Amino acid sequence: MTTANRRHNSRVPFQATATLRFDHHTYEHCQTSDLSLKGVSVEGINGHQVGEQCRVELYLTGSTSNLRLQMKGEVVRVEQNGLALRLFAMDLDSFYHLKNIIAYNLGDPDQVEEEFSRQLEKPDTIV
C-alpha cells in the first residue's frame, strides 16, 4: 500500500518554523514543508529512526499574533532531506489551530470537518 493510500487526512503545503526536542538532541529553527491534522514533514533533520518520539513546537507568526503549538511527535518516515512525524498528544487549542490551517489551505472546509471529527474520536489526539 502506498503512503498516499494509507493517509486518512488531507496534507497541505505549509512552511513554518519548528523546534523538535528528542531525548538527546534539540533542533531549533527547523522548517516544515507540509502539514496535516496528524502529521508534519520537517526538512534538514537526519540521524533518527522510525519510532523515535519527540516534543514538537510549531511557531505561527503573523502581523498581529505569535502562536506556539505544542504536541508530541513520532518519526514515521526518514528521508534524505528530513523526516515525517505523526502528531499526537496535543492540547485542544493546538488541534483547532491545525484544523483551521488545513481548512484555509485546502479550500474544502467540509472535508476538514470530517477529518477533524474522526480525530476527536481517537484517544491519543487530545490531552
Structure description:
With 127 residues, the chain is α+β, with helices and mostly antiparallel strands. The protein has a single domain (11-118), classed as predicted glycosyltransferase like domains (Thrombin, subunit H, Beta Barrel). Helix content is 24%, strand content 42%. It is built from three helices and seven strands. The protein has a six-stranded antiparallel barrel with strand order 2-3-4-7-6-5. A hairpin with a 4-residue loop joins strand 5 (53-61) and strand 6 (66-79). The longest helix is centred in the last third of the chain and has 15 residues, at 92-106. The chain is globular. The chain starts with a helix and ends in a 7-residue tail after the last helix. Residues 1-7 have low confidence and may be disordered.
What is this entry, summarized?
The chain is an alpha+beta fold. It has 3 helices and 7 strands.
- For the termini, the CA-CA separation is 31 Å
Count of individual domains = 1
Share of residues in helices: 10-25%
Structural class, from secondary structure content? alpha+beta
Which descriptor suits the 3D outline? Answer: globular
Portion in strands: 35-45%
Question: What topology, given as strand order, has the largest sheet?
Answer: 2-3-4-7-6-5
Which terms summarize this structure?
127 residues; alpha+beta; Thrombin, subunit H; 6-stranded antiparallel β-barrel; 7 strands; globular; disordered N terminus
